[in-house]
Amino acid sequence: MNYTPKQQNKYVTAIVVTLIVVGIGVYMLPAFLPIRAIFCQAAAMICLVAAVFILVRYKTTAFIYAVRPRSLMQDDIDAEAALAGGHLSVWHMEPRYLDFVVSKKQGSRAPGMECVLGLDCLTAAWDISPEGKFKKPGDASSKAREMYGEVAFYDYTVTLGLARSLLLLFRDGDKYAAIRIEPDGDLRNYLVGVAEKNGKKEEIE
Asked: pTM score > 0.85 for this model?
């Protein structure tokens, strides 16, 4: 199961051009006004660095989300497939057999793996949307820290100013990691279902 979110960045080019123009303008100010050049140079550098960051992050970067079987558990997967009468789809496998993988692709380079997290460690999947409980990523982040203490956050979205996304919380022992993604409907429903299933399992145990 793979999904690559599409960039919906209508204003990135305009923002980048604006930052470059502002940076050049600020850099040239000392030639016309009695201002110390070092401050203008620093401000211009900040504008140019911001322009490069936004261009790379939201124009040339892509993320690929994948749910795949764990290679180390292939024997167990084959055994379960045999009991099911043949091929076993990822959709029907137990979370303990699966990993959630995020790969990153920049330009023409081959994708490189960013993270690999066991789906049996997925403890929560929270929607972030204007009409939801968490309207902004910061709302979900604050709630995660309130519930779990120290949490490492990672953003794997490709749309600047994204209104709708999904925050996934994974537990590894006493450590927690949260990743923000922009899935399609099928992947979103699947991950929310896995999180709910894992939560019920913890309650039983």
From this structure: no
